[in-house]
């Protein structure tokens, strides 16, 4: 093929979902002029990645040769060779010796009787000569998909040429199917030996659950419950083709499967596995059906379930590739989850029930026995329902709330109407378990179902609470629920306490009103105490304590003590909205980092034990924040990334996770990624109408912009933070710790007066609340304000003091930033020779913190300092070298003849700011007028 290689619809490189790492590795190899061999199982996405790479790199090639073999055509000799060279034969024919040309024409056209046995050497040399002739006119890209189906003759010829291309500008981009870890290495090694020596093999593995979810959304199968996406991911094994087929079957089905029911496996996928099942006896198929119904089937379990010949039958299934050997033990493991799903889906319902009935007595675990009993039973049965409810409680105690939710829904299905507890009660318990497990969409659906049936006020209010909890940070989207919940609650203090607790969250998240949220929480705590509902009282007190802590309210410590009084509810105590979480926040803001780390670590361990996914997301983030304050940037980055990955997988807390990850990336990772994550966090907060996190996400964005060197963008973001927090009544500067960043950015943009105002306001609150680390950071910022005014001695003294205090408090990264600012101040003082080792201490401290972005800034400053004397010897000294960036810009415009008003308009600042900046310029340069500035810049000195 010649000319442009059109990019296939739907597969540009930015849409190769979950393949960023593999795509990047292949792209790097192709950019260096090497070749790539993509490999992986069927349906894993090799062709998609291959097409995207080909579309990107075909633009740089003069000639693109393509072939895509199929199994049905693999017996036809030279077919792939004809695809590759058929269209260019006329162009290269004249460059070939007569014998080679005759052999190649015969092979490509089918005229004559050319074979590898008869014309072997001539054909091999002809293919090599043809490719070299094409490369002589410009780079050649060879794109070959499904190498495993290449006819043997074409494969041999292509391999012969590929191994002998040398430095010829020819790149091969190929894909080959490799099945299973047992045979994969040998399969692709064979194809690798037939590739150019510089070929890089790139394996495509299974997608994660979050990537499968994104893929389904992109292809129009979105909106599925996360529990269903989890089942799709498990059944597909992360294979994108299989996942899409399962998603399509669900979209086309009349009703989604209920908990415990299998996914509908479409015919297109069943055909992949069921043909091999036909080679098994009926008894062996029944044995595999029992295995597919079990959780972790073993030969012993299968025998206990009545499959007397389990070993021989599973051995036969392994010979056919249906089962694989489990390296971890005697578990009967299917070669792919789809085989198990297709086998189960194909079985008639009576056979499935028989398999579950056998396992209900054979399984040793009570949870498994109860689940199998439910799936073997039709209709309502109070005894079965009671066993399922007991199993759900056991799963809850074991820290498996997702299993508890599934069992609870099965219990509700088997509970007769009029029972106590009834079906609605069991559905609500299942919905609350689903909330704990992070399956908010399942919980919401169950609660909506209860609301269509339940008439009891208590059940209705509980259902409304689930709907509100499932909304997460987007609580504003369920505003219409609150009047209905209040109406259902009537004058019952227990129910009213639940509603007012959620109203407290609404005041905070939607309105950004901390004072109103505090009042609602206090009211909810009083109502709960009157009703004797200790759990609701503890949650309300914890919320009140958190609001007071963030507001800088003097009652915060006393409220925390009340929330920690006995008796405690263990699940509330470790919840991310519980009292211990509020105490953690207070410890961090009070500079007690060691205690905060111990508290968060213990809470993380407990919520993991209980399977509380949302709380785990939050505590990972809390720990990342603590490590970041302590200057352990590498550890903070690991924790923040783990929290964000879990948040994306569960679909909860993604905005907060992106915010903390942005801060961690800015400190110890990649600044560009920090900016992207911070912008994502801001977007999510704005879309959710989340007034609480909007200010915090903007603070993260402002910080990332500052680290990236864009002080103007940092100022714009952080000014918004200042406005939002003032409007919300947040006065504690330890909440977001953005004030120092804003002041520093303002100094860089030439606005020290506003910077000083920010510092003074924050310092008053920090002094009132005893926030020592905040005071030290403010001193560091004020030192830079003073340096901008030319007060160098005072600036040095304040910076040195700030660094010492931050070191004593354990804020390693802030200490390093103070050392960096001190070094920069020494290096920039006019009239003084810079100290060669002035940056060494800052570099040591940043290296100790693993603060890579900051360390790169130090290295850039050292390089600029080292280049300074050389440049001075080679050129006329720059009289403006001692000026700050904003001062240099203003001075340059003055030298162009611009007025103060024109300068203000061009730099998007006020005229007063220009005047103040010029005053500093005059003082630093020892001059008094614009005329003097022009003369100094010209090297003549002032008049």
TrEMBL record:
InterPro entries for this protein: AAA+_ATPase, AAA_16, P-loop_NTPase, Sig_transdc_resp-reg_C-effctor, TPR-like_helical_dom_sf, Tscrpt_reg_LuxR_C, WH-like_DNA-bd_sf
Keyword field contains Cell membrane: no
Keyword ATP-binding attributed: yes
SMART domains: AAA (SM00382), HTH_LUXR (SM00421)
Annotated ranges, domain HTH luxR-type: 876-941
Pfam assignment, any one: GerE
Keywords assigned by UniProt, alphabetized: ATP-binding, Coiled coil, Nucleotide-binding
Chain segments annotated as coiled-coil in the UniProt record: 771-798
Gene3D superfamilies in alphabetical order: P-loop containing nucleotide triphosphate hydrolases, Tetratricopeptide repeat domain, Winged helix-like DNA-binding domain superfamily/Winged helix DNA-binding domain
Protein name: LuxR family transcriptional regulator
């Amino acid at each position: 093929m010649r000319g442009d290689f059109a990019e296939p619809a739907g597969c540009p490189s930015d849409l190769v979902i979950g393949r960023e790492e593999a795509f990047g590795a292949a792209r790097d190899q192709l950019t260096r002029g090497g070749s790539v061999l993509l490999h992986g199982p069927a349906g894993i996405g090799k062709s998609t990645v291959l097409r995207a790479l080909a579309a990107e790199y075909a633009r740089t090639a003069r000639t693109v040769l393509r072939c895509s073999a199929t199994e049905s055509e693999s017996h036809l000799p030279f077919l792939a060779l004809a695809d590759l060279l058929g269209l260019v034969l006329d162009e290269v024919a004249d460059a070939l010796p007569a014998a080679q040309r005759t052999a190649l024409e015969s092979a490509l056209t089918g005229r004559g009787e050319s074979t590898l046995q008869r014309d072997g050497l001539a054909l091999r040399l002809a293919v090599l000569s043809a490719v070299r002739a094409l490369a002589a006119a410009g780079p050649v890209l060879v794109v070959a998909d499904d190498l495993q189906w290449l006819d043997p003759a074409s494969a041999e010829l292509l391999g012969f040429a590929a191994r002998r291309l040398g430095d010829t500008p020819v790149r091969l981009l190929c894909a080959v199917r490799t099945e299973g870890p047992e045979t994969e290495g040998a399969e692709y090694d064979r194809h690798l030996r037939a590739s150019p020596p510089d070929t890089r093999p790139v394996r495509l593995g299974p997608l994660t659950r979050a990537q499968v979810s994104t893929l389904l959304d992109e292809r129009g199968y979105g909106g599925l419950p996360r529990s269903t996406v989890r089942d799709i991911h498990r059944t597909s094994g992360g294979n994108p083709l299989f996942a899409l087929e399962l998603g399509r079957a669900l979209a086309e089905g009349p009703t989604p499967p209920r908990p415990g029911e299998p996914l509908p496996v479409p015919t297109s996928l069943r055909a992949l596995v069921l043909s091999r099942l036909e080679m098994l006896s009926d008894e062996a198929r029944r044995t595999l059906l029992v295995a597919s119904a079990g959780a972790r089937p073993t030969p012993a379990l299968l025998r206990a379930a009545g499959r007397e010949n389990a070993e021989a039958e599973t051995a036969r299934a392994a010979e056919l590739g249906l089962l694989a050997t489990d390296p971890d033990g005697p578990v009967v493991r299917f070669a792919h989850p789809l085989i198990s799903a297709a086998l189960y889906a194909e079985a008639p319902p009576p056979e499935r029930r028989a398999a579950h009935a056998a396992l209900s007595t054979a399984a040793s675990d009570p949870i498994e026995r109860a689940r199998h009993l439910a799936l073997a039973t039709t209709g309502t049965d109070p005894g079965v329902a009671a066993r399922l409810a007991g199993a759900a409680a056991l799963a809850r105690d074991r820290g498996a709330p997702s299993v508890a939710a599934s069992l609870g829904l099965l219990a509700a299905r088997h509970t007769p109407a009029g029972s106590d507890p009834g079906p609605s009660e069991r559905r609500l318990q299942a919905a609350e378990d689903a909330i704990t497990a992070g399956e908010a969409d399942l919980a919401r659906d169950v609660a909506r179902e209860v609301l269509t049936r339940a008439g009891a006020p208590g059940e209705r209010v509980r259902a409304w609470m689930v709907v509100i909890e499932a909304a997460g940070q987007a609580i504003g989207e369920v505003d219409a629920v609150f009047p209905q919940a209040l109406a259902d609650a009537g004058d019952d203090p227990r129910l009213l306490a639940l509603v007012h607790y959620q109203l407290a969250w609404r005041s905070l998240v939607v309105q950004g009103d901390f004072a109103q949220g505090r009042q609602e929480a206090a009211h909810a705590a009083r109502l709960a105490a009157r009703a004797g509902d200790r759990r609701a009282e503890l949650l309300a007190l914890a919320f009140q304590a958190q609001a007071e802590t963030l507001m800088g309210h003097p009652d915060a410590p006393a409220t925390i003590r009340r929330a920690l009084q006995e008796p405690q509810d263990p699940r509330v105590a470790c919840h991310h909205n519980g009292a211990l979480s509020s105490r953690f926040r207070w410890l961090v803001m009070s500079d007690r980092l060691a205690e905060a780390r111990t508290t968060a670590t213990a809470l993380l361990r407990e919520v993991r034990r209980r399977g509380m996914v949302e709380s785990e997301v939050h505590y990972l983030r809390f720990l990342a924040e603590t490590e970041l304050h302590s200057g352990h940037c590498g550890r903070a980055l690991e924790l923040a990334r783990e929290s964000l990955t879990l948040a994306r997988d569960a679909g909860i807390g993604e905005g907060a996770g992106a915010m903390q990850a942005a801060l961690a990336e800015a400190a110890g990772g990649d600044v560009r990624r920090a900016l992207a994550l911070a912008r994502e966090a801001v977007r999510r907060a704005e879309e959710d109408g989340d007034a609480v996190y909007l200010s915090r996400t903007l603070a993260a964005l402002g910080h990332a912009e500052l680290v990236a060197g864009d002080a103007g963008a940092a100022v714009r973001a952080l000014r918004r933070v200042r406005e939002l927090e003032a409007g919300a009544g947040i006065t504690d500067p330890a909440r977001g710790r953005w004030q120092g960043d804003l002041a520093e950015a303002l100094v860089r943009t030439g606005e020290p007066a506003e910077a000083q105002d920010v510092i003074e306001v924050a310092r008053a609150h920090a002094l009132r609340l005893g926030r020592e680390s905040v005071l030290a950071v403010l001193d560091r910022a004020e030192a830079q304000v003073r340096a901008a005014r030319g007060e160098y001695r005072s600036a040095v003294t304040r910076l040195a003091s700030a660094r010492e205090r931050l070191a004593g408090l354990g804020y390693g990264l802030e200490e390093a930033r103070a050392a960096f600012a001190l070094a920069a101040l020494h290096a920039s003082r006019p009239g003084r020779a810079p100290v060669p080792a002035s940056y060494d201490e800052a570099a040591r401290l940043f290296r100790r913190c693993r603060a890579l972005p900051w360390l790169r800034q130090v290295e850039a400053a050292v390089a600029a300092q080292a280049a300074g004397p050389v440049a001075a010897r080679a050129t006329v000294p720059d009289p403006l070298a001692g000026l700050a960036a904003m001062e240099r810009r203003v001075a340059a415009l003055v030298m162009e003849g611009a007025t103060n008003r024109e300068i203000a308009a061009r730099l998007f600042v006020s005229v007063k700011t220009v005047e103040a900046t010029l005053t500093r310029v005059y003082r630093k340069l020892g001059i008094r007028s614009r005329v003097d500035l022009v003369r100094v810049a010209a090297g003549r000195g002032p008049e």
